[in-house]
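Q: What structure does this chain adopt?
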Amino acid sequence: MQLGVSTSCYFPLETEVSLAHLGAAGVRHAELFLNTLCETEPAFIQQLRAQCKETGLDIVAFHPFTSGMEPLYFASAYPRRVADGIKLYRKLFACAESLGAQIFTMHGDVKTNPVDFSYYCENFATLAEIATEYGLTLSQENVVRCKSGSIDNIRRMRELLGDKVHFTLDVKQAVRSGEDPFDMLDAMAGKICHVHLSDHTVQHDCLPPGKGDLDCAAFFRRLRATGFNRNVIVELYRENFATDQDLADSLDYLKQYIE
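A:
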């Protein structure tokens, strides 16, 4: 396994500034969260590539700013929206490929959408196949506001899509959804390709690893037992840590569980 940090920890700092903070903290593996349309321009992507090369950062995963648009494009009964969504995501896939990412994470359909979940699953499978053209694994993240926040829907995706689905396990999102992170891990077992890790207590649902009640030793044992051997990314919100060193300390704390 490899440990890293997401640039989203620093939002709303600009993407390149967030990368600079990760480099300063000595982080070597990162998830890149692209934040707006102008950042998809080739010149900006080239700038990010040069910055990563200079600081020794390896972009292992890519998260688009378009998550809120995914229900509109991929869980709609309007075929032209799906076609436009695929066109947009091809552009985003190309950005991720250019940055060297292997994982592309989606949030997907929201709970409030009355369209049957199977429709989104069909379009996810189409996108997953297209993503392979760019050397990417499309990954469904569990998110509290989305249908994917439910363990039952994670299981349904597995039943409907089989080998075409992979998952990003997000610990804080499981907690926020009222799901036990270990139960979510079990529901995704064997299909987890990426992990967003944080800690929590009864009072706080997102804390740096080692600062809460999560049994990290048991978590990593369970994760390893599923065959997982990829990237574990620390993903917090800006109010959950104070300095770059706090993130570096989180990685140092977690090293004992992957060695």
